[in-house]
Design brief:
The chain has 341 residues and is of the alpha/beta class. The protein folds into two domains: 59 residues, DNA polymerase, domain 1 (Orthogonal Bundle); 263 residues, Alpha-Beta Barrel (TIM Barrel). A ten-stranded mixed β-sheet has the order 3-4-5-6-9-10-11-12-13-14, covered by helices on one side. Strands 1-2 form a two-stranded parallel ribbon. Strands 7-8 form a two-stranded antiparallel sheet. A hairpin with a 5-residue loop joins β3 and β4. α9 packs across α10. The longest helix is centred in the middle third of the chain and has 15 residues. The protein is globular. The protein starts with a strand and ends in a 20-residue tail after the last strand.
Amino acid sequence: MERRDIRDLEFEDLRRELESWGEPGYRAGQVFAWLYRRGARAFEEMSDLGRPLREALDRKFVLKGFEELSRQRGGDGAEKFLLRLEDGRLIETVLIPAPGRATVCVSTQVGCRFGCVFCASGMSGFTRNLTAGEIVGQILHVRQAIGRPVTHVVFMGMGEPLDNWENTARAVRTLNAPSGLGIAARRILISTCGLIPGLPKLAALGLQVELAVSLHAASNALRDRLVPINRKHPLDKLVPALRDYRKETGRLVTLEYVLIKGVNDSPAEAGRLGALARRVGAKVNIIPCSPVEGLKFEPVSRPEAVAFLRRVEARGVRVSLRRSKGGEIRAACGQLAGRAP
C-alpha cells in the first residue's frame, strides 16, 4: 500500500489515527509541532517520540518534499521557486517580500483547466490537483529557504483553488490552526476565476479568509473572451452569488482586474466595472497586465492605469492600483507556467 503524505492529514485526523494505534491523543500535538514549528523532514528527527512510534509512522506515512530546480530573485526582492513534485511534475511558488511581512503565493494545481487568455498557467492545460500536503509544503519549503516565518499566504499561483476544494480547504485549516502554522485567517487570501459552486463551500469553511475574484471584464461579451468560465457562470449569476457570499460571511470581496491595453481599458469598461463593484459591495484591485511569452497582450502605461482607476473610483468604489512584483523573473500575476527558465 502506498504511504500517504502525513501533511495531508489535519490535526483531528492524525489524533484519531494515533488513538486507533493505542497512542494517547497528545501525540498528535507532538507530531504537528515537529511538522509545522520545527520543520522536520523525517520521522527519525522527532526525538521526543519513542522509536516504536517513529517506526510505525514511517511504515504508514511519508514526508514528501520537493526538488528545487531553480530559485530566482528579482531586483524588487520577489523570489520564484521552481519545484519538482515526486511524480516529476513542476509547479512554481513565489515569495513576495515587504517590510515586516513575507507573503507566499502558492499553486493548487499542476496547470489549470480554465484557460484565462492572458495567463500562462493554463497554456499547457490541466494535469492534476495538488494534495493538501503539497500545498502546505510550498509554505514550509519557502520558510526553510528564507529562514524566517511566513506571515501571509495567497492562493493565486498555478491553478484554481475552488476547483481543488477539498485539498484547498484542508490546507487552509492547517495553515490557520494553532497546532499547524498558526497564520491568521485574515492573512490568507483565496482567489477564484468565478467558480460559483465553490463560493458556498468557502463561506461554510467558517474562517475569515479573504476572497478575490479574477473579474477582468464587467460585461459578459468581453468576459466570455477573456475568462472562458464566464460562459458557464456569467456575470448575472456571479454578481448575486458574490452578494450572497458577502451577506453570509460579512467579508469584503476584492475584484481583481488585469488591465490590458486596447482590450478592457476603455472609459466605458471603467464605468461598467464601477457599477458592478457597487452592486456587489466590493473593492477593486487594478493590476497592469504582465507580459507572457507567446501572447500579444500589452500593459497600459501608469498614467493610463491611473486614469482608469479614477473613472472607477468616480462611481463611489474603493480602488487600488497594484504594483506587481516579480515581473523580471516571470513571477508576476499571470506569468507562472511551471516551466524551467
